[in-house]
Amino acid sequence: MAVRAVTFASHDCDRFVEDVKTRVADYFDTNHLGIKANAAMVIKTIIMVGALVGPYALIMSNQLPGWAMLACCVVMGVAMAGIGFSVSHDALHGAYSSSPRLNAAIGFTFDLLGASGYMWKITHNVIHHTYTNIHGIDEDLEVTPLLRLSPLAKHRPFQRYQHLYALPAYSMSTLNWIFVKDFDLFSRKDLGPYLDKKHPGAQIALMVFSKLFSLTWMLVLPLLVLDVAWWQVLVGFLVVHLIGGTILGVIFQLAHVVEQTSHPVPDDLGRMPNGWLVHEMLTTANFCVGNRLLTWYVGGLNHQIEHHLFPKTCSVHYPAISVIVRQVATEHGIPYHHNPTFAGAFGSHLKMLQRLGADESPNIVRAAVAA
C-alpha cells in the first residue's frame, strides 16, 4: 500500500523534544503513577454510561409523560457526547488500559453508538494526530462541504456565512456519522496519506452491523414498545443526536481551528517546516483548562496539546502534565496556544470561520520555528 510522502524535520528543537518527554516521564516516576486510567477514570466511565442507559431505561418503561421522555433524551445526548469524549476516545487511543483487549472492549462503545471505531483509529489516531491541520491529508478539516476549515480548501461563495450556520452544521455530525461519513470513508480508494487503501471485510461487516444495532436500540425498539406516536419517537431520536452532535462538533473544533493555530504546508518535496512535536504545538490549542467540570466532562480534550503529545496517556493525567509541558515550551521559546475561557475559544473559532469564509488565508506557516 502506497503512502503520500510527507516528512517532518528530523533535527528541529531537539532539546525541547527531549526535555518535555523526560520531565513528563519523571512526573509519573516520582509520583509512582501509571499513565493509564485510575479509579477516578473508572468512576467517570460508570457515570457516563449510566447517564445514557438510565434515561433510556426510564423511557422504555413506558411510565413517563412526554415532557419527561424529552428531558431524558436531552440527558442521553449529553451522555452520548460524554462517552465519546471520556470513554471511547481514551480506549481507542490505547490510553485507557495497558490491556489491548480491555481497550478494544471499552472502545466498542463507539461502535454501539453507531460509528466505526476501526475507521476512527485510522482517520483520527493515525491521520489527524500525525498530519494535524495539513490540508489534503487531515480528514478532520473536511467534515462537510458546508464548512471551510482550512485556508487552502476550496472556497465556495455561501461559506461567507459559515460562522452563522456552523452550529446547525455541527449538530448534524453524529447523524452524518451514522448514515454517511463511515460509508464514504470506507469507499474511498485514497484516504489521507494512504493510496489504494484496502479494508478487511470483517471491519466492513462490523461497521454495518454496529449501525443497524444503534438504529435498533435508539429507534426501532422505541417505535415497537412505546405508547406514543411515531413522530414523537423520531423527535426524541433527533434530540439525542442533535445535542450530542453539537457538543462533539464544537469541542473538537476549538482545539485546531482557532486564530492562534497554524496550517503548515509542505514544500514541493513534501517536507514540513518543523519536526512533528513542534508541528503539533503550532497546530493545536488548549482552552478553558481551569474549568474542572468541563475538563472532567470532555475527557481532558480541552488539554488538546497534551493529548497530541502524549496520546497513549489517559486523559485524567492531562491537567497535571499540562503544567510541565507549558513550562518546557516557554523555556525553549515554543508557542503554547491557550484560550483561557470557553467563550473566548468559541469566539476565536467563529472569527476563524468568518475569515476562512471570506476567503482569507490566515496562519499558513512555511518557515520553521527557531531551535
How would you characterize the overall build of this protein?
It is a single chain. The protein is an all-alpha fold. Helices cover about 60% and strands about 5% of the residues. The chain is globular.
Question: Which short descriptors sum up this protein?
Answer:
two-stranded parallel sheet; globular; mainly alpha; two-stranded antiparallel sheet; 4 strands; single chain
Percent helix range: 55-70%
The largest sheet is: 2 strands, antiparallel
Mean pLDDT: 93
Beta-strand share of residues: under 5%
Annotation, overall tally of beta strands: 4
Class from secondary-structure proportions: mainly alpha
The helix count comes to: 14
Determine the N-to-C terminus distance: 35 Å
Rg value: 21 Å
- Rough shape? globular
Low-confidence stretches: none
Order of helices and strands: EHHHHHHHEHHHEHHHEH
What's the arrangement of strands in the largest beta sheet? 1-2
Provide the fold topology:
Elements: E1 2-3, H1 14-30, H2 39-60, H3 66-92, H4 100-112, H5 117-130, H6 162-171, H7 173-187, E2 194-195, H8 201-225, H9 230-253, H10 276-283, E3 285-287, H11 292-297, H12 304-309, H13 318-331, E4 337-339, H14 342-357
Helix pairs in contact: 1-13, 2-3, 3-4, 3-9, 6-9, 6-14, 8-9
